[in-house]
Design goal:
Blueprint: H1 3-10, H2 44-65, H3 74-79, H4 85-98, H5 101-117, E1 136-144, H6 151-161, E2 165-169, H7 173-179, H8 182-187, E3 190-194, E4 202-206, E5 210-215, E6 223-229, E7 232-239, H9 249-264, E8 271-276, H10 284-290, E9 295-296, H11 297-300, E10 322-326, E11 330-338, E12 347-354
Parallel strand pairs: 1-2, 7-8
Antiparallel strand pairs: 1-12, 2-4, 3-4, 5-6, 6-7, 8-10, 9-10, 11-12
C-alpha cells in the first residue's frame, strides 16, 4: 500500500478510517470543542415539600370517605375541610416542578376528593315554599354569647329582628338576669333558663306557649320544650355539645349522639333544634343527626359554607358550627347571619314556614 493511500485512509471522518473511541469527539468528554452536557436537574426539596403538604389533607379525606371522625387531631382538621384545598394545590405545583408523576396523581386525587366533599350535604329545599300558604310563619334566632359577653348585643338584636323563638348558649348570670327583666318577660312570656357556669348556662325564649319541658343530658345545658305554634305542637331543643377538643372528644361524640337520638324519636311531631353544635357538615357525628331527616336551614337557603366561628376571621375564613335544624313539615325560607359584639360566634336568624 502506498504511503499516500495509507494517509488518506487514516484521515479522520473519511470512509475506512478507524472510528474514534466512544465519548471522544465533539460534544463528548472534556476534550477541546466539547459542548455542555445537558443534565436532568434534581430538586429533592420540591419532592419533600409535596409529600409533606399532601400529608395534611390525606388523613381527613380518608376519614371523610369512611364516614368517620377519627381521633384527634382529625375532627379539628375536618372542621376546616374546604381549606385543605390550599395544601393540595401547593402540593400539585411542587410535584409538577419536581416531575414526580406519582405525587402529581395523588395531588389531583386529593383535590378532586376535597372538591367533592365540599358540596352541600343533604337535599335541596322543596321548590315554591315561599309562595305556598302555610299554617304559620315564624323567626328563629340562635346565638352563642361567649360567656355572656354579647348579652347587650343580643338584646338589641331581639328588639330589631323580633324572632319568635330564641336559643341562647353560654348565658351566664348577667345574661340570665337580663332575660328575666320586665321588658324581656313582656316580649317573651314563655321561657326556659338553665343557669350554671359562664359556658354552661343556656336559655330558650318563646312567644308561643311552652309545655313538656325537658333537657338533653350534657356537660353544658341543653334545655328543650314543646311549643304551641298556632295550634301545632313543635318540639324545640337548644343544642350545645362540648367542643371536639382532645380531652373532650368522647364527650362531644356522645352528646351529638344524644341529640341524634332526640331527633330520631320525634315520630310525626315537627322538631326544631338550634344552637352551637360545635360541628360542621364535614363531621360524621353531625351528618348522622342530619340523616334522621333533619334539614339544615342554612344549607337549604344557599349558605351551607357561610362561617359562624370564629368571628376573628369569619367571614371570610372560618367554619359553620351554629345551625338551625328543621324536620318536616317545616321549611326555611330565609337565613341571615347576625354579627354581635363581644362574642366569637355569629348569630343565625332563620325564617321558617310550618305547613
Amino acid at each position: 500500500m502506498h504511503t499516500g493511500e495509507r494517509a488518506e485512509r487514516e484521515r479522520p471522518g473519511q470512509p475506512g478510517t478507524t472510528p474514534a473511541p466512544r465519548g471522544v469527539g465533539p460534544g463528548h468528554g472534556d476534550g477541546a470543542g466539547a459542548g455542555p452536557r445537558r443534565r436532568r436537574v434534581r430538586r429533592p426539596w420540591l419532592t419533600a415539600s409535596a409529600v409533606l403538604l399532601l400529608l395534611v389533607p390525606v388523613g381527613p379525606l380518608v376519614l371523610r370517605a369512611l364516614d368517620a371522625d377519627g381521633p384527634s387531631p382529625f375532627p379539628q382538621l375536618l372542621a376546616f375541610l374546604p381549606w385543605l384545598l390550599v395544601p393540595g394545590w401547593l402540593a400539585l405545583v411542587c410535584a409538577i416542578f419536581a416531575r414526580r408523576v406519582l405525587l402529581i396523581v395523588v395531588a389531583v386525587v386529593v383535590l378532586a376528593g376535597t372538591g367533592w366533599f365540599v358540596q352541600p350535604y343533604g337535599p335541596d329545599a322543596p321548590p315554591g315554599a315561599e309562595e305556598r300558604p302555610g299554617k304559620a310563619r315564624f323567626r328563629v334566632l340562635t346565638a352563642n354569647l361567649e360567656y355572656g359577653g354579647a348579652t347587650e348585643g343580643l338584646l338589641r338584636a331581639l328588639r330589631r329582628e323580633r324572632p319568635q323563638l330564641v336559643a341562647v348558649q353560654e348565658c351566664d348570670h348577667r345574661c340570665a338576669k337580663a332575660l328575666r327583666s320586665a321588658e324581656m318577660r313582656a316580649e317573651y312570656p314563655h321561657r326556659v333558663i338553665a343557669t350554671g357556669s359562664r359556658a354552661e348556662g343556656s336559655a330558650l325564649l318563646s312567644v308561643f306557649p311552652l309545655s313538656d319541658r325537658s333537657e338533653v343530658p350534657g356537660l353544658l345545658s341543653m334545655p328543650g320544650a314543646v311549643a304551641d305554634v298556632r295550634g301545632t305542637a313543635v318540639r324545640v331543643q337548644v343544642a350545645h355539645p362540648m367542643p371536639p377538643e382532645t380531652d373532650s372528644l368522647s364527650t362531644w361524640r356522645a352528646e351529638l349522639g344524644r341529640l341524634r337520638d332526640y331527633a330520631a324519636e320525634r315520630g310525626r311531631t315537627p322538631t326544631l333544634i338550634a344552637g352551637d353544635f360545635n360541628a360542621s357538615q364535614d363531621h360524621a357525628a353531625f351528618r348522622a343527626l342530619l340523616d334522621t331527616g333533619m334539614r339544615d336551614a342554612a344549607r337549604q337557603t344557599g349558605h351551607s359554607r357561610t362561617p359562624t366561628w370564629p368571628t376573628l376571621t369569619a367571614p371570610p375564613l372560618g367554619v359553620q358550627i351554629d345551625h338551625v335544624l328543621l324536620s318536616d313539615p317545616m321549611v326555611p325560607v330565609d337565613a341571615q347571619f347576625v354579627d354581635l359584639p363581644n362574642t366569637d360566634h355569629r348569630a343565625l336568624l332563620v325564617d321558617v314556614k310550618l305547613f
